[in-house]
Sequence to fold (191 residues):
Amino acid sequence: MSRIFAYARVSTIEQDTQNQIAEIKAAGFAVKQHRIITETVSGSVAIAKRLEFSRLLEKMEQGDVLIVTKLDRLGRDAIDVSSTVARLEALGIRVHCLALGGVDLTSSAGKLTMGVINSVAQFERDLLIERTQSGLARAKAEGKSLGRPPALSIIEQEFVRSELSLGKTVSALARHMKTSRQTIMRARDLQ
Fold:
């Protein structure tokens, strides 16, 4: 007989998991209190590094069912969620997500849903990269300097080159100007 577990997660201590638990019960899942696992941890933390989720995995066995309200409860991004679902499926554990109509993510329909979600997530990542590159190209075309400002002003860079041409060492200049040798070498090479 399948046992039903629930996993509810919030990101901060100001938040509460009670709404997630109520939503699971309202969906018709009768989860015994000792099988409801709650956790307060940022969504940016990979599921493998979540203490309570790890304890949950130790309790679960083949044939069990895990209920979550939303996919983001299971991982920090689509890839993390997919690998978590695959890991649970390999253990013989079914995963139901209420936000997706209660679909079992380990079923054929659930795998299709996960595939679509992963494709959308990859599309969003690609768009973000394109927008970032486009913005950088526009800024560069407008003559804006990109990256961190130089450690030495133009006058200081000219001073470094002048001193080096007079025979001062890179190390001595670095000490004198209270900067690194790498900064002095960078100024030297800008000629």
Notes: Residues 108-141 form the longest helix (34 residues). The mean pLDDT is 90. The CA atoms of residues 46 and 178 lie 41 Å apart.
